[in-house]
């Protein structure tokens, strides 16, 4: 029964480190991992492939139901398959991120993806990262974390990540995009970005990955780690 499968939710804004931290924690615990943002990005990519208008809510809802999404965790890096194609690199573009943010504001799309996300709750446990994991998708999770970081640091992390991939970007442009996305995510009518009341807040500004992973794992009884 899913009700007995333990869940750790890790929510936070873009660039707070939740993806990196969540996967590392899942590996340490031996649990499954859900990158919920990848689902929204996948729908955004599929919508782009179909040349859909992001203002056409009905078309986007149909696209959500029609799009197949699968995660491949067999390698060192999580790969995301969209309609049978490896779309991992495309999902990480700023275009996909902007599309995901726009799509996530549509209530019918969020409803369509809700059951898909909850289906990841299987034994021995699940680490779910996103923006509403602890507030909407898994409100009964036994452990909830909300990661934050300054907008400047989040922009710097994204800048380094994209430059390493050979993508031409500017710090000023990335900072503007992050601030704009923060505003959209926090002010949307459905499932706005906010910490769950019982979430532990961790500011990752200036902290290394291992230090944050250790802080998250410290929330668990010794028998889980």
Let me know the average pLDDT: 90
Largest sheet: spatial strand order:
2-6-1-7-8
Query: Proportion of β residues?
Result: 15-25%
SSE string, helices as H and strands as E: EHEHHEEEHHHEHEHHEH
3D shape = globular
Given as residue ranges, the uncertain stretches (5+ residues, pLDDT < 50) are none
Relative helix content: 40-55%
State Rg: 17 Å
| Class from secondary-structure proportions | alpha/beta
Spatial separation of the terminal alpha carbons: 22 Å
Instruction: Count the beta strands.
Output: 8
Biggest β-sheet description:
5 strands, parallel
Provide a short characterization of the protein structure.
By secondary structure, the chain is an alpha/beta fold. It is 48% helix and 15% strand.
Write up what this structure looks like.
The chain has ten helices and eight strands. The protein has helices at 18-29, 36-49, 57-66, 88-91, 94-103, 107-118, 133-137, 151-164, 171-187, 209-217; strands at residues 7-11, 32-35, 69-72, 79-82, 85-86, 126-130, 143-148, 200-203. A hairpin with a 6-residue loop joins strand 3 (69-72) and strand 4 (79-82). Helix 1 packs across helix 10 and helix 3 (57-66) runs parallel beside helix 6 (107-118). The two termini are 22 Å apart.
Set out the fold topology.
Layout: E1 7-11, H1 18-29, E2 32-35, H2 36-49, H3 57-66, E3 69-72, E4 79-82, E5 85-86, H4 88-91, H5 94-103, H6 107-118, E6 126-130, H7 133-137, E7 143-148, H8 151-164, H9 171-187, E8 200-203, H10 209-217
Parallel strand pairs: 1-6, 1-7, 2-6, 7-8
Antiparallel strand pairs: 3-4, 4-5
Helix pairs in contact: 1-10, 2-5, 3-6, 8-9
């Amino acid at each position: 029964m899913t009700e007995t499968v333990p869940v750790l939710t890790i929510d936070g804004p873009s660039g707070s480190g939740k993806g990196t931290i969540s996967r590392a924690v899942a590996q340490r615990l031996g649990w499954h991992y859900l990158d919920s943002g990848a689902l929204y990005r996948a729908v955004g990519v599929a919508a782009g492939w179909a040349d859909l208008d992001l203002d056409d809510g009905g078309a986007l809802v149909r696209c959500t139901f029609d799009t197949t999404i699968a995660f491949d965790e067999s390698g060192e890096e999580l790969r995301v398959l969209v309609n049978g194609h490896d779309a991992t690199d495309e999902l990480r573009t700023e275009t996909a991120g902007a599309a995901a943010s726009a799509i996530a504001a549509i209530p019918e799309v969020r409803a369509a993806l809700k059951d898909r996300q909850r289906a990841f709750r299987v034994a021995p446990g699940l680490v779910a990262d996103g923006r509403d994991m602890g507030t909407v998708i898994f409100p009964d999770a036994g452990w909830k974390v909300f990661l934050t970081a300054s907008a400047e640091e989040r922009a710097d992390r994204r800048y380094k990540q994209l430059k390493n991939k050979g993508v031409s970007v500017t710090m000023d442009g990335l900072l503007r995009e992050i601030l704009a996305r923060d505003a959209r995510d926090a002010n949307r009518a459905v499932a706005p970005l906010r910490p769950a009341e019982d979430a532990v807040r961790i500011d990752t500004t200036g902290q290394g990955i291992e230090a944050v992973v250790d802080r998250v794992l410290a929330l668990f009884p010794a028998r889980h780690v």
